[in-house]
Design a protein that fits this description.
about 40% strand; globular; four-stranded antiparallel β-sheet; Neuraminidase; mainly beta
């Protein structure tokens, strides 16, 4: 507990410092959505956006027009559940395949996440779009009661394997139970079949899908330039994690965590059980991390090679750098709203979706500071003092 308290003081001091920083980017509000959850760019620059109540939208950013994509499966909307992630197949330009995650209802008030792939058919002559040839390729097992901790983020690696984050559904123990695929990171072929080199393939059943275990609520997946997988993960009461996700490793939840239970009961820290993989970085107090991206663009060259995390409770974008297998927060940019999703655009700009109703889609681009060169030094100094006094 003393270590947690010391870390708390360190993070509070760090947050205070970051709050005083000027944003190095300009914010442009593009449009608004109803409870958006994810987005991805098509090769032609249009944007696909999921809204949690069940709509998939095709957005033309040039004229701000949106088209509702038809034939999207019905979702079980409520709590943290509904329509989830959307990504493209690595060969989308030729096969037009997209991957969607969502929550479906089961028997006896149970529910679970599902992943489908489908062909996106767009008819520009009629202004319509729809999903066709829908295939279910993965299902959370078992379906359980409750409406939280689905995870269901999706990402392809450089070799074309599909990774899925699966939350433990607020049930704790399934994260360590290999007869369930809850609280795990999943690795599949692009058609949903199971790679024979998965670490638990010979165990059979849902265990054969598992890449890593002992996760709580993993809401972000991103690969770095070396092809290594990292994830963001909500801890219980604090202890949010940024993990380097390794083949076959156990990340310890709910046996260990650098947070505690919401009722105040302590959970042993990671350093008490070295057999479990410890997070590369963690946060006390919580930042409530959602999606994460690895930034490789040229619009913000000083951010190249770092990760950008969307913060919900923290209402911020958190920049994290890595050194080998360790990581640290280096900057935090307050956004004034819960941030659900973050993506790098085709031009290297950063696109952000706020969380909730009337959520803004924002474009972040490099701030034009050339005007400062023409301001009298006294005015620049005056503005700097005003900023320091805020």
């Amino acid at each position: 507990m003393l270590r947690k308290f010391a870390y708390l003081l360190l993070v509070v001091a760090s947050v205070t410092t970051h709050a005083k920083q000027e944003h190095p980017f300009e914010r442009s509000e593009i449009m608004q959505f109803d409870q958006p959850w994810a987005m991805t760019f098509l090769p032609d620059g249009r944007l696909l956006v999921t809204e949690k109540p069940g709509q998939l939208l095709l957005v033309n950013l040039d004229d701000r027009q949106r088209t509702t994509v038809q034939n999207v499966p019905a979702v079980d909307y409520g709590g943290q559940g509904g329509l989830g992630d959307i990504i493209l197949h690595p060969s989308y330009a030729t096969n037009k395949l997209v991957y969607l995650s969502y929550v479906e209802a089961g028997e006896n008030n149970t529910r679970g996440a599902v992943v489908i792939r489908a062909k996106l058919e767009v008819d520009d002559s009629t202004g319509t779009a729809s999903l066709a040839q829908i295939q279910r390729i993965w299902t959370q097992h078992p379906k359980v009661t409750g409406q939280g901790h689905y995870g269901h983020r999706l990402a392809f690696d450089q070799s074309g394997f599909l990774f899925i984050s699966s939350g433990e559904r607020q049930k704790f123990d399934p994260a360590q139970d290999m007869s369930a695929n809850l609280g795990k990171i999943i690795r599949l072929q692009d058609d949903g079949s199971i790679p024979e080199d998965n670490p638990f393939f010979t165990d059979g059943g849902v265990a054969s899908e598992v890449w890593s275990l002992g996760h709580r609520n993993p809401l972000g997946l991103a690969f770095d330039a070396q092809g290594r997988l990292w994830n963001t993960e909500m801890g219980p009461l604090h202890g949010d994690e940024f993990n380097l996700v390794k083949r076959g490793e156990n990340y310890g939840y709910p046996i260990v965590s650098n947070g505690d239970h919401y009722n105040g009961d302590p959970i042993p820290d990671h350093d008490t059980r070295p057999e479990f993989e410890a997070p590369a970085a963690y946060w006390v107090p919580s930042i409530a991390p959602a999606e994460v991206i690895y930034y490789s663009g040229s619009v913000m060259p000083e951010w190249q090679g770092s990760f950008l995390i969307a913060g919900l409770k923290s209402q911020a974008i958190i920049r994290v750098t890595t050194d080998g297998e360790s990581a640290q927060e280096v900057e935090r940019f307050e956004m004034g709203a819960r941030i659900r999703e973050i993506e790098q655009g085709p031009d290297g700009a950063i696109w952000v979706l706020e969380d909730g109703s009337n959520a803004k889609l924002l474009k972040l681009s490099k701030k034009d500071e050339t005007v400062l060169a023409f301001l009298p030094a006294v005015l620049v100094g005056s503005e700097s003092k005003k900023r320091a006094d805020r």
